[in-house]
Design brief:
The complex is a heterodimer of chains A (325) and B (279).
Chain A lengths: L1 H39 L2 E4 L2 E5 L3 H8 L1 H36 L7 H13 L2 H11 L6 H8 L16 H13 L1 H13 L2 H9 L4 H29 L3 H6 L13 H11 L9 H25 L8 H14 L1
Antiparallel strand pairs in A: 1-2
Helix pairs in contact in A: 1-13, 2-3, 2-13, 3-7, 3-8, 3-10, 4-8, 5-7, 8-10, 9-10, 10-13, 12-13
Chain B lengths: L11 H26 L3 H6 L11 H8 L3 H32 L3 H12 L9 H10 L9 H22 L4 H8 L4 H12 L1 H17 L2 H6 L8 H5 L2 H4 L4 H21 L1 H11 L4
Amino acid sequence: MNSSSKVRRESGALWLLFALPALLVYAAFMAVPVINSMRLSFFSGSGYTLDNFVGFNNYLRLFADPEISARFFKAFGNTWVFFGINMLVQNTIGLLFALILSGKGFKGKGAFRTIIFIPVTLSVLVTGYIWKLILNPQWGALNIILTKVGLGAWAMPWLGDPRFALTAITLVSSWQWVGLPTMMFLAGLERIPEELFEAAQIDGAGGWLTFARVKLPLLLPVVGIVSVLTFVGNFNAFDVVFAMEGANGPPSYATDLMGTFFYRTGIAGQHPVGIPDMGLGAAVATVTFAVLFAGVLLANRLMNGREAQGAEPMARPAAEGRLRA
Amino acid sequence: MRPPSMIRDPMKPFKYLLLSLWSLLVFFPLWTMVVNSFKFKNDIYLDPFGLPKAINLLGYKTVFENSPFPRYFLNSLLVTVASLALILLFGSLAAYGCVRWKSRYSKWIYLFFVAGLTVPIKIGSVNLLQIMIKLGLLDRTISVIPVYVAMGLPIAVFTLYEFIKGIPGELTEAALIDGAGPLKIYSSIIVSLIRPALATVAIFNLVPIWNDLWFPLIFIRQDSQRTLILGVTRLFGEYQTDWSKILAVLSLSCVPVIILYLTMAKQFIEGLTSGAVKG
């Protein structure tokens, strides 16, 4: 056949041509910049030009310079707290919601699903601003409500007190993203064959036992995916602090996260100088990447390497869920 | 014996109570935002939760008549539409090429794309900033477009690759025999077959692109070039006490996404849940 032999002859180079536009954009604006930013962590310079090779000096400053390292370790610690509270609050509530919604014949499932997910679609900046108004110490809605119900003593400057500020912004973050774990757990629960629940119930297992012995073990892969997503998302979080507290992570750096610290060092420049230290910023980004990489690797190991490592085992279950639906 | 599903659930009232309370918690901030955007300043302080006693449209009026926000809105629209169009076009071409090209190179190219699923592009910000300066794109709205396209391609290629692989060969063979070239087959057959997958890819890129703050913040300082979300960051500096205007802008910036979401909630939930894997 004329046409099929034509296609065979064309193949290699032709198919490469199909992939080329995507390859070029992806390489030039993602793959290369990510690798290059790590390389740049070994350089210093003035302004936006980094041309002076300094070896590990940026890392040395990051970990040992009294002022810089204090900020770095504070932001690093805060990010772990941010992650810890989110795991505990956001993902536990998500699991609880999914368990309720997956109940057989639960009425109103569609409506509740839609409502729980609304904040996920909104801009973090906008929801952050709204919550900032609600938490305002003088006329914010929360303190008004607390005073009205006789808990006036509990009315606090939530965002201005170093004891509460980080928890407050973390809970706002949990409020915003709880829809994601809810839907992922829900999809996981709905994949469990009905007969397993019936068998457990016939064996006399109550709700709690069914959860602990049937649902939870089968949900473990989803727990892993949700944890990894929360981890990656939290170590990149920036918008929520920027909206509610500003890029300096006040009060007294209590809400400074890796994201805001990176922004100040590498992009915006530290107060009062205002000139970015891009080499140091690149080092912060590289450390963030190393932490993420180690975390994802560990999670994959814990989820026992039944599948190959890398992106695929994490991406696959969700993608399968989507294609099936 | 009754089938297990017939057993009455004593926890049921608590379940509905919990979900209703949470729904209240979801709506409360949105309610406060929208309802107060229509109030006069004094009424906001006196009665922050109730319906407005007198409707104040001044906030909305100033937004539309004498402010840069319509411009910001158009900038965001341009960025979102252009980025999505390029993600879908480049992503589907690449996925089609990777599926049809039977060689180990195509597998490597595919894995190269998929590797991007787990790497947050923010890590590359320092170099991206330098690249934008070199390209002369700093301070221009369009600077964020190539970054968003690069960011959206891994998930696009991943999703569309799986989808195109599932298309039975008979569907394209007839066209092949009629003498249609690969590009013709792509544009006349493949594109229409993968339309549902294209919609999913579009949805889970739409929300992060429309809502993104980071890249406009680090690339764009010039006023007229701002995107909507970047424009919102100016609110508190400039209109310190003009609450009806601040709340009007915040409300308006949510409207497009909320309307789209409520009309296609199911697709949004599925799309964003799977897209979240990207991190």
